[in-house]
Amino acid sequence: MNYISIRNNQAIPVHSIPELEYSLFLEQNVFSLLKGGASHCVNYFGFPHGGKIRLICCIADDEQHSINISSSVVDVKQSLPSFSKHKLVFEKFEREIHENFGINYVDHPWLKPVRFPFNRAAKDSTIAGYPFFKIESEELHEVGVGPIHAGIIEPGHFRFICNGEQILHLEIQLGYQHRGIEQLFIQKEKLLQRVTLAENIAGDSVAGHTVAFVNLWESLCNFQPGRDLQLGRTLALELERVAVHTGDLSAMCTDIAYQLGSAVYGRLRTPVINYFQIWCGNRLAKGLMRPGKTNFPFTHELAEELTRLFDEYERDFEEISEELFSLPSALARFEKTGVITTEQAAIIGTVGMSARMSAINRDIRSSHPHDLYPELQHQPLIKNHGDVHSRGRMRKKEINQSIEYIRELIQSLSKNVHRPGQLAGLSRGSFAISLVEGWRGEICHCAITGDTGELIHYKVKDPSFHNWLAVALSVRNNEISDFPICNKSFDLSYCGHDL
Fold first, then answer.
1. Are the C-beta atoms of residues 267 and 205 closer than 8 Å to each other?
2. Residues of the chain predicted below pLDDT 50
């Protein structure tokens, strides 16, 4: 075979990844491995390799629960045919490769900068000169929002082209706060420093990114965590999902001026994030998860507290949700607003909730399960209409499902097995990949080690990397006054994108 198939959280010798001539590399990943709807690209990146660039493509087969890895070594000065001409799902991956290394794609449909990182190939390319798409017409006008926003929202620029109140086109430019996170994983030498970096990739996805990091690190150290560690990680992921979905329902109510919903959902979010404070001393779950261990084991006392919390939460949550989703004024703003069709979602490669609300079954908890998800036998929730209403209803249903999972996990506490052991050093000359279904969608971390076991490359992909284009498409032909509710119904991350 011209690729190697591995499982989620598996480490392999990097030399076992086949190196293909570029034309065969393109043919295989674009036309063979992505045939049908059951496979998708979870990561595609490059790294310096003997004066050239080695490209690594990771295609997940969601039916076979495997990830197919292949590579190609190319010269920076080469002009290459793009994957994106044939499959748009690769467009942002290739734009990033172009920006980082200067590799030119001769037929890429949208070869623009992604992040303007400090170590970009073209230093003369600056965010101030970003080439926004334009339409010349006396009847149309542009509306710019950002990059400085009101409140605490992070920097991003939204450029609308409108005909009166109707949005014809939206282009979203991020990259205002590139923090060099991936490079810092290489530079920092202490494990505590690296896990702290993972916790700070995106403030609303601490559990998601940290679980990805610790699972990846343990696979590189050939460490098998005990059930107690896996229980804590699974609980943290589902608690984070409940907390953020609840907060987003509050924000969606705010955007349509439904003050009761905003207040009640906002109040319900608070005890969930406060529970993390009780558990580990931090409301966002920082410090909770560590490779090979935990400083805050989940106890029967914590289980009793969590049971009481959801007994009280569910009563009010169901009441306000029944009110919201039967309120004519709310439904008028939600239904048929911000639609992403199944075809659009598939073409641009959406993941997580942004895929499932458009009838695409994409959920790492079922396709590439990790930790205790095999025990839960997770069944993804699917909606079909792709509008704001679908995204709101999905949040409500996923909260119900997550609470059910949490109660089931609590009941299984007595099955816990602690597997003591010391983390060994990183495997030499290895590649590892970790996939996690965060509340926003698919998180992917990849790592490569050198001949002496040192970390030589670390690659992070937040689900927002896939899904920002869906926001831009969702507002087309909507009124500009509907942009806030469209945007909040996705609730994507600026900092998760600007790594």
1. no
2. none
- pLDDT score of 255: 94
Q: Are strands 442-449 and 39-49 parallel, antiparallel or unpaired?
A: unpaired
Residue in this structure with the two tokens 């659009």, named with its chain if needed: 344
Which long-range contacts does 275-280 make (Cβ < 8 Å, 24+ apart)?
A: 275/239, 275/305, 275/306, 275/309, 276/236, 276/239, 278/302, 278/305
Alpha helix ranges (H) inside 76-187: 91-101, 181-187
Angle at 239 between CA 334 and CA 346, to 5 degrees: 50
Amino acid 151: pLDDT: 66
Q: Which residues pair with 437 in a beta bridge?
A: 442
Please tell me the predicted confidence (pLDDT) of residue 311.
Answer: 96
Question: What's the pLDDT at 129?
Answer: 84
The stretches of 54-143 forming alpha helices (DSSP H) are 91-101
Q: What is the pLDDT of residue 150?
A: 67
Hey, what are 222's tokens? 């050939």
**DSSP reduced 3-state for 280:** helix
- The domain locations on the chain are 4-114, 215-463
Instruction: Report whether 482 contacts 166 (CB < 8 A).
Output: no
How many angstroms separate the CA atoms of 25 and 83, rounded? 10
Give yes or no for a contact between 124 and 100, defined as CB atoms under 8 angstroms apart. no
Coil vs helix vs strand at 139: coil
Phi, psi of 70 (to 5 degrees): -145, 170
Distance between CA atoms of 459 and 48, rounded to whole angstroms?
13
In this predicted structure, what is the pLDDT of residue 149?
Answer: 76
Q: State the first-to-last Cα distance of the chain, in angstroms, to the nearest integer.
A: 34
Q: How far apart are CA 261 and CA 119, in angstroms?
A: 45
Contact 159, 132 (CB under 8 A): yes
> What tokens appear for 24 in the block?
């065969």
Residue 15: alpha-carbon gap to chain centroid: 28
How is residue 499 annotated by DSSP? -
Cβ neighbours of residue 179 under 8 Å, at least 6 residues apart?
495, 498, 499
Q: For the domain with range 215-463, which CATH number is right: 1.10.645.10, 3.40.50.300, 3.90.70.10, 1.25.40.10?
A: 1.10.645.10
Q: What DSSP letter does each residue of 429-474 carry, written as one string?
A: TEEEEEEEE-SSSEEEEEEEE-TTS-EEEEEEE-THHHHHHHHHHH
Q: How far apart are CA 68 and CA 12, in angstroms?
A: 12
From 386, 389, 392, select the one nearest 471 (Cα to Cα). Answer: 386
Closest C-alpha among 446, 361, 398, 457 to residue 40: 361
